[in-house]
Amino acid sequence: MQKSPNHRLADRVLWALGRASLQSQRLVRQHMLEAGVRTQHYHVMASLDGDGEAAQATLADRIGLDRSDLVNVLDELEEVGYVARRVDPGDRRRKIVAITAAGRKQLVAMDRLIYAAEDELLAPLTAAERKVLLGLLSRVSGE
Description:
Pfam family, one: MarR_2
CATH class: Mainly Alpha
CATH architecture: Orthogonal Bundle
InterPro entries: HTH_MarR-typ, MarR/SlyA-like, WH-like_DNA-bd_sf, WH_DNA-bd_sf
CATH superfamily: Winged helix-like DNA-binding domain superfamily/Winged helix DNA-binding domain
Strand order of the largest sheet: 1-3-2
Protein name: HTH marR-type domain-containing protein
Radius of gyration: 18 Å
Helix content: 55-70%
């Protein structure tokens, strides 16, 4: 990512956060691409693992993915055995999606890719600085 020290907002926190966010997203995509996986796969499986199984429409809303795009992602994940879909017995028009044991194993591997991207992003910082940064960002985001 090209530096913009002369940008009119270069001295503003929002500008720096935005640049750091873009860099972190680029690094995550790069690490995932090199491993042959996609960030959309991660978002789907992490949501299913963390929030539980869900109807396809609910899952799409949870992760902010267009419903028709989600169908394609689910097809890919189901093909490799990372998720399973079943008909909702309460409404036969709906499909319920759940993560499989293989999906959970893959999710752990993808977590490691994210950790590697984070380590690369934060390489200039000491462990203490990383802890302070995380604390400050958590406070700002209200978490």
